[in-house]
Amino acid sequence: MEKVEEDTLLYREGGFAYHVLTPTYRDEVLMVLSRAFCTEPVCSGIEEVKPEMKTNLHDWVEFVDYWMDHCSSNGMSVVALDEKKGRVAGSFIVRDLLMKPEGFEEKYSNDAYTLTPWMQFLWHMDAEATKKLPALGEPGKAVDLWFLGVHPDYRGNRIATYLTKGVTMLTRRKGWKYATIEATSYFTSCAAKSNNFTAYYEIETKDWLWKGKPFYTHCKKPHGKWTFWVKDL
Question: Tens digits of per-residue pLDDT, 208-224?
Answer without folding.
Answer: 999 999 999 999 999 99
